[in-house]
Design a protein that fits this description.
The structure holds two protein chains of two kinds.
Chain A lengths: L6 E5 L3 H12 L3 E5 L28 H10 L3 E4 L2 E9 L2 E8 L14 H5 L8 E2 L11 E2 L6 H4 L4 H5 L12 E7 L1 E4 L3 E3 L16 E3 H11 L13 E8 L14 H16 L2 E6 L9 H11 L1 E4 L4 E4 L5 E5 L8 E5 L1 E6 L1 E3 L3 H8 L17 E3 L9 H21 L1
Parallel strand pairs in A: 1-2, 1-9, 2-3, 9-20, 11-18, 12-13, 12-18, 13-14
Antiparallel strand pairs in A: 4-5, 5-8, 6-7, 10-19, 15-16, 16-17
Helix pairs in contact in A: 1-2, 1-10
Chain B lengths: L6 E6 L9 H14 L3 E4 L5 H13 L4 E6 L8 H8 L7 E5 L1 E2 L10 E2 L3 H11 L7 E6 L4 E4 L3 H12 L4 E5 L12 H17 L3 E5 L2 E8 L2 E7 L5 E6 L1 E4 L5 E3 L12 E3 H9 L1 H8 L5 E6 L7 H15 L5 E6 L9 H10 L3 E4 L5 E6 L2 E8 L4 E7 L1 E4 L1 E3 L3 H9 L27 E3 L9 H19 L3 E6 L2 E3 L9 H5 L5 E4 L2 E4 L9 H5 L5 E3 L4 H12 L2 H5 L6 E6 L3 H10 L8 E6 L7 H9 L4 E6 L10 H18 L7 E5 L5 H18 L3 H15 L12
Parallel strand pairs in B: 1-2, 1-3, 3-4, 8-9, 8-14, 9-10, 14-25, 16-23, 17-18, 17-23, 18-19, 31-32, 31-33, 33-34
Antiparallel strand pairs in B: 5-6, 7-26, 11-12, 12-13, 15-24, 20-21, 21-22, 27-30, 28-29
Classes of the chains: A alpha/beta, B alpha/beta.
Chain lengths: 409, 712
C-alpha cells in the first residue's frame, strides 16, 4: 500500500504541522490541516529575524517559505478555527470530529480595507485581529471574547461600515467530520505564563514583556518601543530561565531561550545601539561556533550570572530589577527601560485532552509521548522543547513514520 | 522577439476610484500597446466575483497568459490560483501585478493607481516575452547510496535505506561496526550494537570496513565513487546519493587550561570504561575511596552530551558514600532531555557542583593526585581540594584525515571545526553539495535523541531525490551556449549546490539539485550561460522599461532608485509590507531576480547607465541565502562594482546593498527609505543629466541613418 491519495489528518498549523503536511502532500497524500486559531503559522510566524549584518542562525526564516507554501498547496485543506472534539478508530483508520468556530468575517468578501478597524470601539482589547502572515485570507478576524457585540448584542459598527458586507455575527459553529488513515499531532507548546510569579512583575507593569512578545514587536515594527509610552527602549534586560529549570514544576531546560535571548540581545545592541543586560544561570551551547558566538556576546552585551529576585516600578517609569551582583555583597537595584522575560516552552494545556482523544500516555513534564498507539504520530514541540531546525527534522521524521505506517499496512 | 499569442491584461478600476484618473488611462494605453488590444477593465478584481470574472474572460478569449493589475490584496495565493485551477487553467499563467492601493491614510475601500504603475506594467509586458522553456521529463537515476560512518546514525540510516530498496554501501572508517563509545551511554551503545548485528546479515548492504574513498565525482543521482576496502580491493560504485554520518574524532577539552600535561587528567570516555572494570579501576587508584573532580568546559564550551556522561559517571562514583565527587562546570549544559532532573538528582546524591569562570580554576600536581584551586563565589574565598583524578570533557576535533574525507565528498570544511559552514539554507540535513546529506555528528548536532530525527528526515530526502530510480525532473533551465563556452568551468566551481557538472567535458546542470539561483550565469566570464525565462536580456529589457522616463520622476523631491529584490527573501518581505498596507514608495522601480547570485554586475551597470540615480540590491543576510551562497557571490561582485564606479567617476555610494529576511516587512521599507535619503544627498546621477542634455539636443538635431535619410 502506498501513501498516494491517502487522507492524513494533521492537528496544528504551526511550523511543525505545516512542514509535516507539506512533506506528506509532496509524497502524494491528501492532508487536512487543523488550526485552532483564526490564522495559520503558530508561534513560528511571529518570530523576528535576528540578523545583524550577518545571519546569527536563529533559523526563524526557515519557517516563512514553508508557511506560505501551505497557503497555496492544493493537496492541503486548511481548517482554521477548529479543534478536534472526538477521534474514533473506524475500519483501521480514523474518524475525527472537528468543532469549528464561525468565521464572522467572510474570507470571500473581505478585501482588508480596514474600515472596521477604524470604527471598532474594542480594538485595544483585541476585538479585531490580523494575521502574522500578511498573505493570509481572511485578512481580519473577530475575536468574540473581546468583541462588544457578543456582550451587548448591539455594537455592530464594523458590520455596518463594511462596504463588502463581509461581517455576519449570526454565523454558527460547525461540526466537521473527517476520515483519515493516520493522525499527526503537531499541537506545539504554550509559552510559559509568568503572570502568576509576582516578583517578575509581568502583567503588572506594561514594560515587562515576554521575549516572545518582544520578538513579535520587533517583527512588526522593526524597532523597540516601550509598550507603556511608545518611547524607544535604550536599556533592556533579559531574564533567563523563566519557567525553565525550576526545582519544582518545570524542572527542565527549554533549550531555545539562551539562543533566542542572546541573538535578540546582540541584534539590539549592534543594530539599534541598545544597552542589553542578560541575567542567566548557565549559557547553553547552540549553533555551530558557540565559542565565537559567546565571545562576541560577551563583548557586546553585559552577561550577569545572577537571577534577579524582584522586578518593580521605579521612578520616571523605569523598571527596577533587584539582583545580587556579587555573592556576599549587598543587592543592587538597577533601572531598565524594558525587561524581557525569556519564557520557556511549556507543554500545551490541551495535551491531557489530546492524550485522552488519541489514546496516548502523557510524556515527560506534560509533553506528549508517542506511545504504541498505531497510526498516531507526533511532530514538533508537542513532543519536547526544540528549536525551528530541530522541529523541521522532527516533522520530517513524523512524515516518514506516517509513510512507513501506511506502506507497511 | 514576438509577443506570445493571446496575452490579456486585466486592470482593476479600484472600486471605481481609479477609473477616471489620468494615471489609470495611461495604464490602459500602455496595456493596449503591449497586449495588442486585449485589455479588460474590471471594477474590483480583489473580490471573489472579480477573480472569477478574470478566469471567465481567460477561458472565453482563450488566453494563454494574463497580467492582472490590482492592489496587493489580490496577491492572496488562494482565490485567483484556486479558481484558475478549478477552471482547468494553469495558475502560473496569470501574473498578478501590484498596481493600485488605498490613498494614503484614508480609510476607504476605493483605490488609486500607485506611483510607478505604468513602468511596472511595462516591465511585466516586456518580461512576458521571456516565457522560458522548462519541461519536466522522466529521468533515470542511480538508486545506490553510500553511507559513511560506523555509529548509531550511520547504521540506522543504512538499515532504513536498505529497507526502502536502495542498494547501500556502508563505508566505515575503522574495522568495527558500532565501536564502543562510552560517552554516548549504554542505551545508544546497545542500540548501535544491535543494529550492527542486524546489518551484518542484511542482504541489501555491502560493508566496506576501513574503507578509503579514492575518488568521488559526478552529481546527485549519478555519482561515481571509487573505494578501496581493508583487503586492498577496489570497488567502483554508481551512486544516487551519499549520507555522511561519521563524526570527527574527539579530543580532551584542555587547550589553554594549563592542565595539558597533567598525568592525573583523563577523558570522560576513558574514565567511564574504567568504571566498567573494577579491577582496572583498583589497579589505577588503589583500594581507598575515590576522590574525583569532573571539569567541563576548561578549554572550549562543553555540551549536553558530555554533561550527561559526566553525571552518569559522577553518580556511579558517588554511590560509595566515602568517595568525594565535585563537578566543575563553566556553564552547566542542561539543554538535553531530562538533563536538568538528572543533575538535580546527582546533587541529591552528594555530588557537589561548582561553577567556575574562565581562568577561575587552576591545578597543580601533587604526589598521587592533583590539587584544584577555585574561587568560591558564595564564600568569597579561594578554596582548594586534592583529587585522585580530574576527568574532563571531550570536544570534536576533526583531524586531517577527517577533513580530507569531507573535502573529497565535495564539502568545504569551515574554520569552526565542521565539515561545512553553518548555513541556514542547508538545514536540517543538506550540505553544500546536492545529493550529499550530512547528519548527526557529522553536522555537529546535539545528542542521539536528535540524530534519529535527522536519519528519518534524510530517508525522506533520499526518497524525494531518487524515487524508485526514475524521477520527474525539469530540463532546460540552465542553457550553456557551446559556441561561447571555453570550458573554463567557472560555473562548476561557483555553483553553491554543486549542481554544475560535466558531460563529455562540457558543463551541464543537474536539475535534481539546481535551485535556479543563476550564480553560474552571472559568474560566467563568457556570458555563455543563460537561465531559461530569466535571460540577461530579459532583465536588461525590464530595466529599460523601468527606466521609462526617468527624468520626469527624478525632477521632484524623490530620486529615482532601482531596487533589485531577491525573490526568496526581500521580494517576500516587500509583498508582506504592501499587504499590510504600507504605501508603495514613490520614485522607486523594482526588479525581482531569482537570487542575488543572478544579479550580474552588468545588470547593475545597465541600471546606472540608464540614468537611475542609484541602485539598491536587497539580498539575504550573509549565511542565510536560500540558495546557500548566491549572496556571497554577489558580495564579491559588489566590491568590484564599487571600484568600477569610482573609476568611472560615479559615487560608489550610489550602489547600495543590504540583507533582508522574508519576515522583515518593516525593514525592507526602511532600507528603501534610507537609500532614497542617501540619493537625495548625492543628487541626480550625472548620467541622468547627460540623458536630459541629449534629449534637449535631440530637439535641435535631425537624426539621420547611414543613407542620410531622416529618421522619425
Amino acid at each position: 500500500m502506498s501513501i498516494q491519495d491517502k487522507q492524513i489528518l494533521v492537528i496544528g498549523g504551526g511550523i511543525a504541522g505545516c512542514s509535516t503536511a507539506l512533506e506528506l502532500a509532496g509524497q502524494g497524500a491528501k492532508v487536512d490541516l487543523v488550526e485552532k486559531e483564526d490564522f495559520m503559522g503558530g508561534h513560528a510566524a511571529r518570530l523576528a529575524c535576528k540578523a545583524i549584518d550577518a545571519c546569527l542562525k536563529c533559523n526563524s526564516c526557515l519557517a516563512e517559505p514553508r508557511l506560505l507554501q501551505v497557503l497555496s498547496e492544493p493537496a492541503i485543506t486548511l481548517h482554521r478555527r477548529a479543534t478536534m472534539s472526538a477521534l474514533a478508530r473506524v475500519n483501521g483508520g480514523f474518524e475525527a470530529v472537528l468543532h469549528q468556530r464561525p468565521a464572522y468575517v467572510d474570507p470571500g468578501c473581505c478585501n482588508g480595507c480596514g474600515l472596521c478597524l477604524q470604527v471598532c470601539p474594542a480594538l485595544e482589547e483585541g476585538a479585531i485581529k490580523g494575521p502574522a502572515l500578511a498573505a493570509e485570507l481572511p485578512r481580519l478576524a473577530i475575536d468574540p471574547a473581546a468583541c462588544l457585540y457578543f456582550k451587548d448584542g448591539q455594537s455592530t459598527m464594523c458590520r455596518d461600515v463594511c462596504p463588502e458586507e463581509a461581517i455576519d455575527f449570526s454565523r454558527k459553529p460547525q461540526e466537521v467530520r473527517l476520515q483519515a488513515e493516520a493522525v499527526v499531532l503537531a499541537t506545539g507548546f504554550a509559552p510559559y505564563d509568568p503572570a502568576p510569579v509576582q516578583r517578575l512583575g509581568y502583567g503588572r507593569f506594561a514594560d515587562v514583556v515576554t521575549a516572545l512578545e518582544l520578538e513579535a514587536m520587533l517583527r512588526e515594527q522593526g524597532r523597540l518601543l516601550r509598550p507603556s509610552d511608545d518611547r524607544e527602549a535604550h536599556k533592556v534586560a533579559f531574564i533567563q530561565c523563566v519557567g525553565s529549570r525550576e526545582t519544582a514544576g518545570n524542572n527542565y531546560c527549554s533549550r531555545v531561550c539562551c539562543g533566542y535571548a542572546l541573538r535578540l540581545g546582540r541584534m539590539l545592541a549592534v543594530r539599534l545601539g541598545t544597552q542589553v543586560s542578560v541575567f542567566y544561570m548557565d549559557l547553553q551551547s547552540f549553533g555551530h561556533a558557540v565559542d565565537d558566538f559567546l565571545a562576541a556576546a560577551e563583548s557586546e552585551l553585559r552577561l550577569i550570572r545572577s537571577m534577579p529576585y524582584d522586578v518593580y516600578r521605579g521612578k520616571e517609569s523605569q523598571v527596577l530589577v533587584d539582583y545580587q551582583a556579587q555573592a556576599g555583597k549587598a543587592p543592587v537595584s538597577e533601572a531598565f527601560d524594558l525587561v524581557a522575560l525569556s519564557v520557556g516552552l511549556a507543554p500545551n494545556p490541551d495535551n491531557p485532552g489530546l492524550c485522552n482523544l488519541a489514546g496516548l500516555d502523557s510524556g515527560h513534564h506534560g509533553f506528549l509521548a508517542s506511545g504504541d498507539n498505531a497510526g498516531v504520530f507526533l511532530a514538533g514541540t508537542a513532543a519536547r522543547p526544540m528549536d525551528v531546525a530541530e522541529t523541521l527534522a522532527h516533522s520530517g521524521r513524523a512524515a516518514q513514520e506516517v509513510i512507513n505506517y501506511l506502506e507497511g499496512a | 522577439m514576438e509577443q506570445p499569442a493571446k496575452l490579456g491584461v486585466f486592470l482593476c478600476q479600484g472600486g471605481g476610484g481609479a477609473a477616471d484618473s489620468l494615471a489609470y488611462k495611461q495604464l490602459h494605453w500602455t496595456a493596449e500597446a503591449g497586449a495588442g488590444g486585449l485589455v479588460f477593465d474590471l471594477p474590483q478584481i480583489c473580490q471573489a466575483e472579480g477573480a472569477a470574472e478574470v478566469v471567465r474572460l481567460c477561458r472565453e478569449n482563450n488566453l494563454q497568459s494574463a497580467i492582472v493589475g490590482a492592489c496587493p490584496l489580490l496577491k492572496n495565493p488562494g482565490t485567483l490560483s484556486r479558481l484558475m485551477r478549478e477552471a482547468g487553467l494553469d495558475p502560473e499563467a496569470a501574473q498578478v501585478l501590484d498596481l493600485c492601493q488605498k490613498p494614503d491614510g484614508e480609510g476607504t475601500a476605493v483605490c488609486e493607481v500607485i506611483p510607478g504603475a505604468q513602468a511596472a506594467l511595462s516591465q511585466a509586458l516586456c518580461s512576458q516575452v521571456y516565457t522560458g522553456e522548462i519541461v519536466r521529463e522522466p529521468r533515470q537515476v542511480a538508486t545506490g547510496v553510500l553511507v559513511v560512518g560506523d555509529g548509531l546514525a550511520a547504521l540506522s540510516a543504512s538499515r532504513g535505506l536498505a529497507q526502502a530498496g536502495h542498494p547501500v554501501t556502508l563505508l566505515t572508517p575503522g574495522r568495527r561496526l558500532a565501536p564502543v563509545e562510552p560517552l554516548l551511554g549504554p542505551e545508544a551503545t546497545e542500540a548501535a550494537a544491535g543494529l550492527a548485528r542486524e546489518l551484518e546479515t542484511e542482504a541489501g548492504i555491502t560493508l566496506l570496513r576501513q574503507g578509503r574513498l579514492l575518488s568521488f565525482s559526478g552529481g546527485a543521482g549519478d555519482f561515481r565513487a571509487r573505494v578501496r576496502d581493508r583487503g586492498g580491493q577496489v570497488h567502483d560504485l554508481h551512486l544516487g546519493a551519499v549520507v555522511m554520518a561519521q563524526g570527527p574524532p574527539r579530543e580532551l577539552n584542555l587547550p589553554g587550561s594549563g592542565l595539558e600535561d597533567c598525568a592525573a587528567v583523563m577523558g570522560l570516555s576513558r574514565f567511564l570504561s574504567l568504571l566498567d572494570s573494577p579491577e582496572h579501576l583498583k589497579r589505577r587508584f588503589g583500594p581507598k575511596p575515590l576522590r574525583v573532580a569532573f571539569a567541563l568546559g576548561l578549554g572550549r564550551e562543553s555540551d549536553s552530551l558530555n554533561l550527561r556522561a559526566a553525571a552518569r559517571a559522577a553518580r556511579r562514583v558517588a554511590a560509595d558514600p566515602k568517595s568525594r565527587v565535585v563537578l566543575f562546570t563553566k556553564n552547566a549544559k542542561v539543554a538535553g532531555s531530562g538533563l536538568e532532573e538528572i543533575t538535580q538528582q546527582m546533587r541529591g546524591q552528594g555530588v557537589v557542583m561548582v561553577k567556575f569562570t574562565s581562568g577561575g580554576l587552576t591545578a597543580s600536581e601533587r604526589a598521587g593526585g592533583v590539587e584544584l584551586v577555585w574561587d568560591e563565589e558564595v564564600l568569597g574565598a579561594k578554596l582548594s581540594q586534592e583529587f585522585d583524578v580530574v576527568v574532563v570533557d571531550e570536544t570534536p576535533a576533526p583531524d586531517r584525515a577527517y577533513l580530507e574525507l569531507g573535502a573529497s565528498l565535495g564539502l568545504h570544511p569551515a574554520p569552526g571545526r565542521r565539515l561545512q559552514p553553518d548555513r541556514v539554507g542547508a538545514l536540517p540535513v543538506f550540505s553544500g553539495r546536492g545529493g550529499v546529506l550530512l547528519l548527526a555528528e557529522a553536522r555537529g548536532t546535539g545528542e542521539p535523541e536528535r540524530w534519529s530525527d535527522e536519519v528519518a528526515e534524510a530517508l525522506l530526502e533520499v526518497k524525494k531525490l531518487l524515487g524508485q530510480g526514475e524521477v520527474l525532473a525539469e530540463a532546460g533551465r540552465v542553457r550553456v551556449d557551446r559556441k561561447r563556452c571555453t570550458i573554463c568551468l567557472t560555473c562548476v566551481r561557483v555553483c553553491p549546490q554543486g549542481a554544475m557538472g560535466r558531460l563529455e567535458r562540457r558543463p551541464v546542470y543537474n536539475p535534481l539539485v539546481c535551485t535556479g539561483c543563476g550564480t553560474c550565469a552571472a559568474e560566467c566570464p563568457m556570458e555563455a550561460i543563460q537561465l531559461s525565462g530569466q535571460e540577461d536580456q530579459r532583465y536588461a529589457d525590464e530595466i529599460g522599461a523601468a527606466a521609462g522616463r526617468v527624468g520626469d520622476l527624478g525632477a521632484g523631491s524623490h530620486r529615482d532608485l532601482l531596487v533589485f529584490l531577491c525573490a526568496q527573501g526581500a521580494a517576500q518581505a516587500f509583498k508582506a509590507a504592501r499587504l499590510a498596507g504600507a504605501p508603495r514608495p514613490r520614485g522607486v522601480r523594482l526588479v525581482e531576480v531569482p537570487c542575488a547570485g543572478k544579479l550580474d554586475a552588468d545588470l547593475v551597470l545597465e541600471a546606472l547607465g540608464r540614468g537611475f540615480s542609484g541602485v539598491l540590491a536587497l539580498h539575504c543576510h550573509e549565511d542565510a541565502c536560500y540558495c546557500l551562497a548566491g549572496n556571497t557571490w554577489f558580495g564579491y561582485r559588489l566590491g568590484h562594482l564599487h571600484e568600477l564606479l569610482r573609476e568611472a567617476g560615479l559615487e560608489p555610494e550610489r550602489l547600495m546593498a543590504a540583507g533582508v529576511a522574508p519576515s522583515q516587512a518593516a525593514e525592507v521599507m526602511g532600507r528603501i527609505a534610507r537609500a532614497q535619503q542617501q540619493l537625495a544627498r548625492l543628487g541626480p546621477s550625472p548620467i541622468q543629466a547627460g540623458a536630459q542634455v541629449r534629449e534637449v539636443l535631440s530637439r535641435f538635431t535631425l537624426e539621420v541613418d547611414e543613407n542620410y535619410a531622416i529618421i522619425g
